[in-house]
Design a protein that fits this description.
47% helix, Rossmann fold, 5-stranded parallel sheet, 4 domains
Length: 456
């Protein structure tokens, strides 16, 4: 169980502290602080973020009820579980009125204790996420803008996604990132990693095309002798990720049997290496991505509903480039500088004509396609008008002067015709027959227009 904030257990009996500590650890809840001094507990509560508090009522010096009252006044977001040997209806009612989440009578069954603590930790997580998201949306700020430094954007939609990712980044629940090919799903997964656990591993794998055996071996690893050819043990990616982030791309292409294994990993937080008899716990934060419509796939039977609903606790849809055209100038400038540095050239200044052409193109390949077009054009560019894509490759992205570019105030028909004639003559180096062929008119007709222009 991923647990960013600890559980504080306060009880003056050391045996009880040790018993609760061991019981919770056996259920995978291992971020625990034990305290036998209630006054020290008050200092811990004031000075350290906590996920939950387990509190005894009868303690010398400061009673558990006094601590509960203070917690409700100063830390109302902290879930408190009362565990006491003094079981009376009056004390239970009093504690619940003071805001206790649960009331447990000693001796407490291990399963009951673990279930109560899991509920408290989940409530604490949801409260933190809601508070963080509300603060981000109201204040319109990013607490960790460096996590999104690899995105170049001027889009309000993207900024709202950044705020949401920042709010849920430390959640223990999986994050599902959807979007078309080339929108930056892996970059968003890396942003989650930078927010949640930047010092921990980030492990990425594309699961498209993996059959069930390869999927299991890739994620879970195997023991020596697990199958023919398994001469040594192999660590899977889940183990390599440790308590960092495990990113699974193209999750919509998983086979049904692999989906079952992934569901178990998410629900039980444990996995079974090939050839092993004992499951191993997983602390990895799961981030998955797909360019497919998983909701439609669940309706058609192509994707398990239980897995889909488990994955989409936190759902992020990255809009395609055609839905955020305001990003084109920003991305174009970035890619021009990158491409110019790559080819050892000076980056050209994009014209308004070029921006107009790019804004009229749907970009089925999204940001990745724009980058490819710019790098290809920069490789062919030798000065002069800069073009972004050959005619055959990207209709509507014609380079330089091949496409008309109108000023803010439209010219008259006569002015436009004369400008077109002058451009044709310049390209034909003054040869009227060549210029006439470019314009699709006869040479005498061109001569007449040239004479009319000279008379103006």
């Amino acid at each position: 169980m991923i647990q960013p904030f600890p559980v504080l257990i306060v009880d003056d009996e050391i045996d009880i502290l040790n018993s609760f500590n061991l019981s919770l650890r056996s259920f995978g809840i291992d971020n625990i602080i034990c305290c036998s001094n209630p006054r020290e507990a008050l200092q811990i509560i004031d000075n350290q973020p906590l996920g939950a508090l387990i509190l005894d009522l009868s303690m010398p010096g400061v009673s558990g009820q006094e601590i509960l009252t203070k917690v409700r006044e100063t830390h109302p977001e902290l879930p408190v579980i009362v565990a006491t040997g003094v079981e009376t209806i009056e004390s239970a009612v009093a504690c619940m009125k003071l805001g206790a989440l649960d009331y447990l009578a000693k001796p407490v069954e291990e399963e009951r204790l673990a279930a109560s603590v899991r509920t408290a930790l989940e409530m604490s997580r949801l409260r933190r996420e809601n508070s963080s998201l509300r603060q981000c949306l109201v204040v319109d700020r990013l607490g960790k803008p460096e996590a999104f430094a690899h995105f170049s954007t001027a889009s309000l939609k993207m900024r709202q996604i950044f705020q949401y990712i920042e709010a849920v980044g430390c959640s223990s629940e999986p994050i599902l990132i959807t979007g078309e090919t080339g929108v930056g799903k892996e970059l968003m997964a890396q942003a989650v990693h930078k927010i949640a656990c930047p010092q921990k591993p980030f492990v990425a794998v594309n699961v498209a095309g993996l059959d069930d055996m390869v999927f299991s071996d890739t994620l879970f690893g195997h023991r020596k002798g697990a199958f023919t050819g398994a001469m040594t043990a192999r660590k899977g990616l889940v183990e390599q990720a440790g308590d960092g982030v495990l990113f699974l791309d193209e999750i919509g292409d998983l086979s049904e049997s692999s989906q079952v294994k992934l569901l178990r990993l998410l629900q039980e937080r444990e996995y079974l290496p090939l050839g092993a008899d004992v499951p191993r716990p997983s602390e990895a934060r799961m981030v998955v991505a797909t360019n497919r419509d998983l909701e439609a796939m669940t309706r058609d039977g192509g994707f398990r509903k239980d897995l889909y609903y488990r994955l989409c606790t936190h759902l992020v849809r990255i809009p395609p480039l055609r839905e955020r055209m305001e990003d084109i100038p920003v991305l174009l400038d970035l890619f021009l500088r990158q491409a110019a540095a790559n080819f050892g050239k000076t980056a050209p200044v994009p014209s308004r004509c070029l921006l107009n052409r790019l804004s009229g193109y749907p970009f089925p390949g999204n940001v990745r396609e724009l980058r490819a077009l710019v790098f290809d054009a920069m490789g062919r560019w030798n000065g002069g008008d800069f073009s972004c894509g050959p005619e055959a490759d990207a209709p509507g992205l014609l380079g330089g002067a091949e496409e008309l570019c109108f000023p803010a105030t439209l010219p008259s028909i006569d002015d436009a015709v004369q400008a077109l004639v002058r451009e044709a003559m310049a390209r034909a180096h003054g040869v009227q027959t060549v210029a006439a062929r470019m314009l699709g008119i006869s040479q005498p007709a061109l001569s007449k227009r040239l004479k009319k222009g000279n008379d103006l």
